[in-house]
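Q: Two folds, back to back.
A: First:
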Amino acid sequence: MKSGPLALRALVAIACASFPLLIAARGSAQESDGLEPDWRRGTKRRESPQNWAVELRFGPYYPKVDDEFKNGKQPFKQVFGDGGHFFIGLEVDWQALRIPYVGSFGPGFGWGYTSMSSPAKLTGTSTDSAETTSLWIMPMYLAGVLRIDEAARELSIPLVPYAKLGLGYAWWKASNELGASNYNGIAGKGHSYGLHVAGGLALQLDFLDAAATQQLDNSVGINHSYAYFEWLYSDLGGLGGGQMRVGTSSWVTGLAFEM
């Protein structure tokens, strides 16, 4: 799957996810007492306590399976091609600390899923057989998350850079129509782990409708919402021998909510 259709699909998914929230919040705001919220009077708006962030994640996934082969063989590319495969994920962060003049810091846990399938090749050839080969990967990670949001909170600059560093872990399974497959006698299922690094930029969406943002906070406790773009490097399989390299170097986009 190419990155163009992936980006389009991700944007459609983001729009579908955010539309009901914005409509509900705007409707509730219209039914309020009609008073202007605090931001229109030049003061900070009232906010409920903020301790958590939740991210919905979409993007292409490029497993680095072939990186472990040093003899020029590329079994993954031969079977599944070199395009990106659709990835969906979820991340939950606990904003445990507030660093003065900087932002929030705390642990975050992420979960994701991607799968791919293709006709298996006849042994020793590039010819498709009647058998289908598939691979699914479930990457997860635990990381420290730093969000530099002080400028957004104090100066109303709606851009929030952030960084993540931690360890990743993945379950994966390669199979055919007869069950789990194998390569040179090695079972086609297992787990991989390694370093997880990511960085990105989030656009705070409060400015689109401040009254609806206030009402969303009042009704369900969502302080801020964001659209974001993130680059990540997940070296799953890079720590310790005997692991399949199922990590990726890619981008994700999506929606984030702080509450």
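A: Second:
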Amino acid sequence: MPCSVIKNVMKASKTSFADILRSLWLYLFGVVTMPLGYVGAVIVWLLTVLFDRHLVVLHLYSCFWASWYTWISPFWKVEIRGKEKIDRKKVYVMVSNHQSMLDILVLYRLFVHFKWVSKAELFKVPFSGWNMSMNRYIKLHRTSRTSIRRMMEDSRRTLESGSSVMIFPEGTRSTSGRVERFKEGAFRIARDSGKPILPIVLYGTGNALPKHGFWVRGKHRLQVQILDEIPPETFREMTVEELTEHTRNLITEEYEKMRKEAESV
């Protein structure tokens, strides 16, 4: 990349030269390793698909593949708290706030079985998207009512079959640095299926790689806080609207605690 181009990019995006180098290193590493990771996924699928109906092994391989990028990166330190609250024998509707594409890599670090609910465009991305299809994750066209209904039906079937689902109820990445309004779909699914909700709070990912941003910014702590599950008996009498707001309040309260803690360091 010519020096003049780099200077223009730095000026326009307020990005440091170090950030550009970090980003180029990371993206180059991804370009080189993504095909290899996908080949590994295909091999795992071929070896396990006949006896692993939930594709647990393939998902765990995907967790390892995704986690590799945060493990080797000297720019990110992932901290997970409250992981002991996850009962691996239970099936959850898992919900998390959403700030960055890094959220996906970070949540894979839980190494817990679930099926992503994700926008359909991501399934078209070479290698990682193909792996999502192979895992039978759940597609969503956000502007299509038919797709939304199909997503909710697929999520209920997935829960009934014994796999948790992971949903970002904001629907898209926040640009404000705060927890945005939650859509009701995840909570309607929880109500209809009678499954517990597992709230998860992410902090730091939006600063490391903001929405609409291309450059990885500096070194960051990427924090994950698992909250107490919300048992179905506690929300059986709630409306979907009340359950949605209750869960958002829990996540927002913890997020604000994490923000104040980070700012005080």
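Q: And?
A: The two ends are 36 Å apart (CA to CA).
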